[in-house]
Amino acid sequence: MKFKSFSTSLMGSMPRSTELLSARDEGDKxxxxxxxxxxxxxxxKLEEDNGIxxxxxxxxxxxxxxxxxxxxxxxxxLMSLDEVSKLTDDESSFDESVSSMDADDTINNxxxxxxxxxxxxxxxxxxxxxxxxxxxxxxxxxxSPYLLTRxxxxxxxxxxVYEDRADLGEDVVELLSNEIKRLIxxxxxxxxxxxPILSEVVFSKPGTENTFF
Length: 213
Prior knowledge:
mainly alpha, TIM Barrel, two-stranded antiparallel ribbon, two-stranded parallel sheet, about 10% strand, globular
């Protein structure tokens, strides 16, 4: 695929409709899937009508750009920030970092509570559906291995099943590599790797272990 100079694409997610959120909260999967398909069609049409070159699905099924992994991967549990805070050895330091990031208790975090299953499917099924909705190039979005490893590691929990964070990282890399291979096989034109927390490496305080990220 050859892209024109300064090709356009959507970065980030689209707002989810009230109907989609209600179906999710009700736990009605068939209703949720039906609304999800219709809302995704609307997102695709909006992109095409506005001349977007590389189409995305708007990530409408995701709670956020990384927590959705907990719904897809065996061995990962979604925890609230309050739950994570209570499990940390340095609860006050964690709470301080949450406050500094302007985060709240509506944010959930995926934590590896067992060794993760690396052949689980992440974005593949929704991208297959997206391919049926447009003739334009399409983009899949995945969290980076660094982002997932940092987010999924909680020493007090994950450290019981993995030797260290690097050990978890090897499984995360394999998980994402398997997904990327599947996406390439079905002809995805662009794979976006999200990693908004690399700045933590530069700006975090020396010796800080358990932070918002």
